[in-house]
Design a protein that fits this description.
2 helices, 88 residues, mainly alpha, elongated
Length: 88
């Protein structure tokens, strides 16, 4: 299943205080490019700021994949449990 969103952890946002507005915009676009599987092209400061985010994205994706696989084997195709029916 393809994810349609990602999480940015609040405690990671302190890096924004060390970037100017243009670099903050570049960081956001770099996050977008990373999640779309595109080459991330930006300056060294933004790449350094992006690095911990990428590490967190990878950890979050691993958790998501494990949870999705576990739910998918337990329930319906969408990961939910099958509904009980009162057939008589």
């Amino acid at each position: 299943m393809k994810k349609t969103s990602f999480v940015i952890h609040i405690d990671s946002l302190a890096v924004l205080d060390h970037l100017d507005d243009a670099e903050c915009g570049q960081l956001l676009k770099a996050m977008r490019d990373y999640h779309l599987g595109q080459e991330v092209e930006t300056n060294a400061y933004v790449k350094i700021a992006l690095s911990p985010f990428i590490s967190q994205f990878k950890r979050d994706n691993q958790k998501y994949d494990k949870k999705w696989e576990r739910n998918n084997t337990k329930g319906n195709k969408d990961g939910t449990k099958p509904k009980k029916t009162n057939k008589k």
